[in-house]
Amino acid sequence: MIEAIDSSQKGTNSELSILLVEDSEDNRMVIDLFLKDTPYKITYAENGQEDAGHGRLRSDKSDTTIRRGNGLTPTPIMALTANAFQDDEQRALASGCTAHMAKPVKKKKLLRVLKEYLGSSS
User: Fold this and answer.
1) Peptide bond into 74 cis (omega under 30)
2) SS3 state of residue 44
3) Could you tell me if 91 and 63 are in contact, meaning their C-beta atoms sit under 8 angstroms apart?
4) Does domain 16-118 have CATH number 3.40.50.2300?
5) 23-43, pLDDT tens digit by residue?
6) Which of 66, 108, 112, 121 sits between 20 and 30 A of 37, alpha carbons compared?
7) What are the domain boundaries of the chain?
8) What CA–CA distance (Å, rounded) separates 69 from 106?
């Protein structure tokens, strides 16, 4: 599974918006818990075909659709995947992802990577 995280739109009330594409409800709940007391606001989509309020996504074009961002700054995309080998990371980066993180996701690392690519409103 690959999840795209979209920060192209700043939320209100000092929130940073993230689009997370994840088909597992359990994984969505874990990410929710990790980001509960942070400035990050998550919008979920279960797959690349689903419209999650950030424009229609197609799995074969989702990275370019997200990156286009309606003329806004380029959007970082992070792959969270069970594929943990170095060649998996290289493949994700070559396909347009900004970062790669293998599951199981560690909270500290997730927060560090999000802050690096999205910043923090606090």
Assistant:
1) no
2) strand
3) no
4) yes
5) 889 988 999 999 999 998 888
6) 66
7) 16-118
8) 28
